[in-house]
Structures are given as structure tokens and as C-alpha cells.
Amino acid sequence: MNFGYEAKTIKQPEFEAQLFFDYSNERLLVNDFSGNIDDLLRAINKYVEKYSFTKIIIKTRPQHWQELLSKGLELEAIFKSYFNGIDCYAMVFYKETKRRTSHYWVQENDILISILEKDRQSFLTTPPSTYHFRRATKEDVVQLSSLYDHIFKLYPTPMNQPEYIHYQMNSGNIFYLVEHNKQIVSAASADINKTFNHAELTDCATLPEHRKYGLMKKILSFLEADLKQQGITCVFSIARALSYGMNAALYQLGYEYGGRMINNCYIFDKMEDMNVWTKDLPV
């Protein structure tokens, strides 16, 4: 089934790498690697030329990021505790000046600073009793896809397709949702990686008329509790840098800002910068 991306494991005598070909967002991700970095970079460049990727992201452990820096890559974000408690350094390089150029950086900084200057609140607001929270099932995929299609003109993955959400659930990812008058009005998911015991909290969406009740913060809390029971020790989220509400929700839930990824993916209505937020889940 083709969803606009492809994962590949590359094994060569000099190195081994887990690659993610994200054709829809014109980027190549190296999610893990071992071996000779020079040979890895040469192999990556061949794929970049073949598929016309404009952004390359290499996720690396602490011992490698400075070597990659010395070879012309940039440090764009740090994912705390990503590799079973070891920090991940997201090193990037760009093939087009347009992709490297952020047109909203100062505005995004203003949003971020205004959030970081606020005190964190340890309590969650209680929405009206007409809102019901629960874990999603496969019977919800059509309504979920309609929710994402309604909110996002563009999205990095095909969340407007019921079969894609069904595929995500079959892959072990979990969704939580909120119903109001038997309609799904808010949802989010956790993309779980059991190898490294981390999960990405993603696919966060709330209908505009229901955004004043703190629904997303409660959904993320439910996801965290579920993940903790599964032995997940690290969670992270990548939020639109232009979204005050989403970044504020993550900050209030105790997430730590880890950097901004320039023109990282197509979302909402254009290619956008994305803020990285991470949090440890205590055992």
C-alpha cells in the first residue's frame, strides 16, 4: 500500500542504516545508523539525486553529531532520551536555498518566548460533561479521517484516508479521541517505537469551535498514561511553530523545547517549520 513514503534498511560492508524515504515531503530521514559516516553520506547523496529530496535529516547519537557538523551538516533539534534514554541529535542538510529559508522565524520565536515566559499549571481543566474521552477503535477510522480532512488542507501523512488510519492501528499505534453529541471533535495518536521505548504524540486535531476547553491536553495525558503502562519511557511531539495553542499545551504538560526544524513538512496550508518537544515518562 502506497502512502507516499517508504522505509528501507541499507546494509553495506562499511555501514548499516535505517532510511525513511518521505516522498510527499521531499525529504530523506536516516532514523538510525552504524559504521562509516563518509560512506553513509556518499550513499545518501545518491538517493538524494535520484529522488530530488531537498532536505536530509540524520538522527544520531551524542558521539557522532560533532563529526557530522564538521562535514557541513547543521544541528537542528535535540530529542531528549530518544534512543533508550540516550539523546538524539537531528543533523540536517539542505539541497535548496528555498527549503533552508524560514519566512516566519521571528514570528515563531515571538510565539515560543511568550509561551516559555508563562508559569506551568499542574492541573487540567475539566471540560463540560457532554465531552467523552476514550481510546479509539477501528470502527472510528471513517469519522477520524473526516476530522483530519476537515481541519487540514495539507498534512504530512494521508490521515484523511480511513485505510491509512486502519493501517496505523494495525501497526500498533494508538489513538484517543473526544466525542460530543456522538461526533468526534478532537483526537491524537501515539506512534510507538518499542525498539527504543519512545513514542511520538502526533495527529493532534480539534475542531475550532471546541478548542476552548483544553481537550487536547487531556487527550495527551490519556495517551501518556497508556504509553507508560506499555513501558514507554520517552515521548516527544513535533508541533507547528506557528500554532500557539499546540505549543502552549505541550509546554503546560511539562514538555521541554528541543529546537525548530525548518520547512520540515507540508501541514495545514504550506511547508512549515516545526518545534520539537520532549518529555521523560518516569518508570
From TrEMBL:
UniProt keyword Transferase, yes or no: yes
Keyword Metal-binding: no
CDD domains: NAT_SF
InterPro entries xref list: Acyl_CoA_acyltransferase, GNAT_AblB, GNAT_dom
Keywords noted in UniProt: Transferase
Signal peptide location: none
Residue ranges constituting the N-acetyltransferase domain according to the UniProt record: 131-282
Pfam family, one: Acetyltransf_1
GO molecular-function terms, A-Z: N-acetyltransferase activity
The name this protein goes by in its record: Putative beta-lysine N-acetyltransferase
Taxonomy of the source species: Bacteria, Bacillati, Bacillota, Bacilli, Bacillales
